[in-house]
Amino acid sequence: MAIDAGERSRVPPHAARRPRLPDALAGTVLTAGVGYRLLLLRTDTPPTNSDEATMGLAALHIAQGREFPVWFYGQAYMGTLEAYLAAPLIALTGPSTLALRLPTLALYAVFALLAWRLTLRLTGDRWYALLVTALLAFGSDRIVKNQLIAGGGYPEMNAAGVALAVLAYDLAAGRPGHRLPRWIGWGFLAGLMVWVDPLVLPYVIGTGVVLAAFRWRELRGWAGALLGVGALVGSAPLLLDSLATGRSPVSAVLAASGAGQPASWAERLPGALVLGPALGMGFCSPGACAGWQLWWSAALPVLVVAATVAAWRRLRVHRRPPVPAPGGGRTVADATAAALSLALVAAAVATLASYAASSAAGHTPVESSRYLSCLLISVPVLLWPVWLAARRRSPGLPGPARVAAIGVLAGALGTAAVATGAAIATVPAHRAAEAQHVELVATLRAMGVRHVYGGYWTCNRLTFASAEDIVCAVVDDDLSPGHDRYPPYRRAVDAATDVAWVAPDDSPLVARLDERLRADSLTLHRVPGWRLYLS
After folding, report:
1. At what angle do helices 154-172 and 81-93 cross, to 10 degrees?
2. Residue 259, class by beta-carbon neighbours within 10 Å (0-12 exposed, 13-18 middle, 19+ buried)?
3. What pTM was estimated for this model as a whole?
4. Torsions phi, psi of 150, nearest 5?
5. Angle between helices 332-357 and 97-123 (to 10 degrees)
6. What is the pLDDT of residues 284-306, one digit of tens each?
7. pLDDT tens profile 89-111
8. Contact criterion met (CB below 8 Å) for 280 and 375
């Protein structure tokens, strides 16, 4: 049962002030989760890439007052919130991956803290909230990439999604105080996420339905107006850009999802329902899943059904107008917790369904498993029936069910820990690769090279790392012009008279450039991990 405000008011003051062991442990675990990610950032893990560097270049341009982009450079969707968050740091310290990622680290801390609060709101069980916090503190390769890389959308979605759920609970349950800021805040975050990334929309809609169901009379008055104002402010970049350009971000999102490259259900379902959940929710090694790690994908449908049944039964108890009772009877808080739990389960199902419907699940299941990152918002609800069964608080369950429930909880923690260990094992390789890139930038600067051609995953990373001292234009493996996200770089390189070619060792581009080396008067210069072709 959730604990409502009335129950809390009856707790003796000295008891309320007494330190709670699970709260202290949860704080320690949360701090450890933040510390683990900070150590990763200090050791160049996860590795950066040109997409993150593109966001970094946007932040650099914002800091310099040159550009104020609405969308990720080179496309008409995915808002640049991360660039605006990082711009003040880059203005102070100059461009660096660390400056880009400190805001995303803060977003993880917000997500973990609010997930703990949401768990308490929905269940009232502090030991269970500790368990959820511990599970979310782990960080597999896919999880830390989603949470820390400032490549657009993913770090902020989970923090915003769980914040929407907490605000929806507080407003629907009628928690006293700060009603006006909460209405504005919910609207603002909902609008902001519409601009930033539509992947979180199932959680925006789900929590919004709970608000409408419990506070529809309030929404017809000043509360609705405040929510609307907040939503307009949050989505203002999208709305203003659409009015100014006539572009629809919806069509761009559909194109990016692979709608133009259809895949059969036989191709989609293994990626969406077998590999995707285990990889996307943090139970696998870097870039792959061992067979035993896929147990989570098999357990997830069972957890969804159990959470749905538990939430629905709890909601049915409160289908009549709730009546406060001193002994812990039906309360508004209980009804809200049940409804919001059901909404979070529905949002998880919608997230899985939309991913299964996308061609990305069939074509790129490993990399596109990031589309399932929002499922972490539903973890407090998905594991709650298992926790109750493990603690023998589910009447009517057979004895073996408790053993199975304990196994699921232990398996979740253990598998996440193993995946986290595998992510830590990659640190030396990532540090070595970053050191090679630093040497590449230093070598180009020492040689006076300011304009280069390179592959997509080389160019913007090189330009950002050099603070635009070195400008790179993209070429494909056949040396034809590639996808330049920021067209001025292409124009600058094409106009230059002294241009070099840069490619990582053993890449297809190297093979083509070696052919040109034999035919033209190019000079080869080697840097560990890289090759420079100078004219």
Report:
1. 120
2. middle
3. 0.92
4. -85, 60
5. 130
6. 988 889 999 999 999 999 999 99
7. 999 999 999 999 999 999 999 99
8. yes
